[in-house]
Design a protein that fits this description.
This protein is α+β, with helices and mostly antiparallel strands. It has 3 domains: 53 residues; 83 residues, GMP Synthetase, Chain A, domain 3, CATH 3.30.300; 65 residues, R3H-like domain (Ribosomal Protein S8, Chain: A, domain 1), CATH 3.30.1370. Helix content is 36%, strand content 29%. It is built from 7 helices and 12 strands. The strands form 4 sheets. The protein has a 4-stranded mixed sheet. A 3-stranded antiparallel sheet has the order 1-3-2. The protein is flat, with a radius of gyration of 22 Å.
């Protein structure tokens, strides 16, 4: 996919691309169409124009919708603490990380999204949110194995959709792009290790036999892992082919 973005400088245009596409700079290629010009005393100044080449993120087919929903709380003025709405508490529990301020708007939006997502899927789960300068991480634990499986979906399809939609929600409230990483029951961590192994094995076959090696159908998140894993290896080239959900990475020797 290709998209164009403008900014007062090339860097501003790149930041705008990160925010609107919901992905960090290392996940797309930037071609500078026009450099910014300052003009004379501001006259004739022109913004920078860039073209971004990126891999399209698969659409969500999980049946969920974007919601900005404030859950009800009752304030106990006598004791000075909050009581969770009973219905909400039955569905899931909150585990707030000490490093995250409850007053930060983007964290509130993220929590509201997660709460609504869990409610729509009728699962019981707890989650923990951690935030650094460059990333926001969410770790979810289902109360039962069925809860966990339902949230992950086939080959991580539901998890990927959750991550994509939540990233879009976050982008609306963040002034600077932060990558969102959601994992459920360590699925993504284990899946990353498996995908990297498949990538290395495919690379070895392509180099040994000099033929195109096609990997299994993967989500956009898994395909990105393959591209990143083999990006620094000389003598091989990767590309994706096919249409969702039957899209895969191919590896060829060059």
């Amino acid at each position: 996919m290709k998209s164009r973005f403008e900014g007062k400088t090339v860097e501003d245009a790149i930041k705008k691309a990160e925010t609107q596409l919901g992905m960090s700079r290392e996940h797309f290629t930037v071609d500078v169409i026009n450099e910014d010009t300052k003009g004379f005393l501001g006259i004739g100044a022109k913004d920078a124009v860039i073209e971004v080449i990126y891999e399209e993120v698969s659409e969500c087919h999980c049946g969920c919708h974007d919601h900005e929903h404030d859950h009800g709380h009752e304030h106990d003025h006598e004791h000075g603490h909050e009581h969770h709405n009973h219905e909400e508490h039955e569905n899931h529990e909150h585990h707030e990380d000490n490093h995250v301020s409850a007053d930060e708007e983007h964290i509130k939006i993220l929590k509201n999204f997660l709460d609504e997502f869990l409610r729509l899927f009728e699962v019981k789960a707890s989650y923990e949110i951690n935030e650094s300068d460059e990333m926001i991480s969410v770790f979810i634990d289902g109360e039962t194995s069925d809860d966990t499986s339902k949230l992950i979906g086939k080959k991580g399809s539901v998890l990927d959709s959750m991550n994509t939609i939540a990233q879009i929600q976050l982008n609306k409230s963040l002034t600077e792009f932060k990558r969102l990483y959601i994992d459920i029951g360590d699925y993504r961590k284990k899946r990353q290790e498996k995908v990297r192994e498949l990538a290395i094995q495919g690379c070895e076959r392509a180099r040994k036999y000099g033929t195109k090696v096609s990997l299994e159908y993967m989500t956009s998140y898994d395909r990105r892992i393959v591209h990143e894993t083999l990006a620094g290896i000389e003598g091989v080239k990767t590309f994706s082919e096919g249409n969702e959900p039957h899209r895969r990475v191919c590896i060829i020797a060059k």
